[in-house]
């Protein structure tokens, strides 16, 4: 159930039965030699739509560009500064809160967004609950939750089983597989050399490019396939639907 495909009356009647909404958030950045620039937004959006169907929940518009400063050494990458992303998240959430939405479940496709999202949630809480300024009525609290699509227990086990140490941490074998499952017409034939990229930490964009010349970190996305992507997608959706429901019931 996409917010963009509803009428205002349909949204109003949805709000009579639920104040929850799923918000996909991704990134637009390099994903190594065979990964799409849009990988993080594509995965987050498709999985969010699946979770929306499984949990009979509204899905909001995707935040398609995230915090990807460290990827800017590679052509096509785009980034928001952390402060811009926080401002966007605040405006998305508070717009919807005005109409009665109170539980915001962000399905995230990009590790680089995590710190900024946590900070954005506190910006939102500071404003909503009047931590600074006027206090809102007791009991009308607003909650935000971030769930990375690859993070569930079943997902961790699946990644270990399918890719082991070749999963990596950027341009991962599983995210490339998910895009291949969703968009088989975009599958790239590319040389992946060495098969498993080096791992490790980095500082800014220039340092990232020096350490990880083809953009990958620790991964071998040469092992990706649409069929493996289907398994990841089909494992992630029900696991996240359960987490979403528990979030609405205030159990997580
Ligand atoms: Ni990614």
Task: List the defining traits of the structure above.
4-stranded parallel sheet, binds nickel (II) ion, Rossmann fold, 44% helix, 252 residues, single chain, 8 helices, globular, alpha/beta
Structural class: alpha/beta
Q: What CATH architecture do you see?
A: 3-Layer(aba) Sandwich
State the strand order across the main sheet: 2-1-3-4
Number of domains: 1
Total E-strand runs: 4
Could you spell the SSE succession in H and E letters? HEHEHEHEHHHH
Helix percentage: 40-55%
Distance between the termini: 23 Å
Tell me the name of the CATH class.
Answer: Alpha Beta
Distinct small-molecule ligands in the complex: nickel (II) ion
Q: Given the C-alpha coordinates, what overall shape results? A: globular
Count, helices = 8
Strand composition percent: 5-15%
Q: Overall mean pLDDT score?
A: 96
Q: Please outline the major beta sheet.
A: 4 strands, parallel
C-alpha-based Rg, rounded: 19 Å
- What oligomerization state is this entry in? single chain
CATH superfamily: Creatininase
Report on this model:
- The protein has helices at residues 8-17, 39-55, 82-99, 114-128, 153-163, 173-182, 205-211, 226-248, and strands at 20-25, 58-59, 103-108, 143-148.
- It has 252 residues and is an alpha/beta fold.
- It has a single domain, classed as Rossmann fold (3-Layer(aba) Sandwich), CATH 3.40.50.
- The chain is globular and about 60 Å long.
- Bound molecules: nickel (II) ion.
Short description:
By secondary structure, the protein is α/β, with parallel strands linked by helices. The chain has helices at residues 8-17, 39-55, 82-99, 114-128, 153-163, 173-182, 205-211, 226-248, and strands spanning 20-25, 58-59, 103-108, 143-148. The protein is globular.
């Amino acid at each position: 159930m996409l917010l963009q495909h509803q009428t205002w009356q349909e949204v109003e009647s949805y709000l009579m039965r639920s104040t929850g909404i799923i918000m996909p958030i991704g990134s637009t950045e390099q994903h190594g030699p065979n990964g799409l620039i849009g990988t993080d937004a594509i995965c987050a959006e498709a999985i969010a739509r699946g979770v929306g169907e499984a949990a009979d929940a509204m899905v909001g518009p995707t935040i398609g560009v995230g915090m990807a400063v460290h990827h800017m050494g590679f052509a096509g990458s785009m980034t928001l500064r952390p402060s811009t992303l926080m401002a966007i998240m605040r405006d998305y959430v508070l717009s919807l809160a005005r109409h009665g939405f109170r539980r915001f479940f962000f399905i995230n496709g990009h590790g680089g967004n995590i710190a900024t999202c946590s900070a954005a949630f506190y910006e939102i809480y500071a404003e909503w609950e009047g931590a600074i300024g006027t206090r809102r009525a007791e009991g009308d609290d607003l909650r935000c939750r971030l769930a990375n699509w690859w993070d569930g227990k079943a997902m961790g086990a699946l990644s270990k089983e399918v890719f082991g140490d070749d999963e990596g941490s950027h341009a991962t074998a599983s995210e490339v597989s998910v895009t291949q499952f969703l968009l088989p017409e975009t599958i790239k034939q590319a040389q992946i050399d060495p098969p498993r990229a080096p791992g490790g930490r980095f500082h800014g964009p220039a340092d990232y490019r020096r350490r990880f010349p083809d953009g990958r970190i620790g991964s071998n996305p040469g092992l990706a396939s649409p069929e493996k992507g289907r398994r990841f997608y089909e494992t992630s959706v029900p696991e996240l639907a359960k987490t979403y429901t528990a979030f609405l019931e205030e159990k997580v």
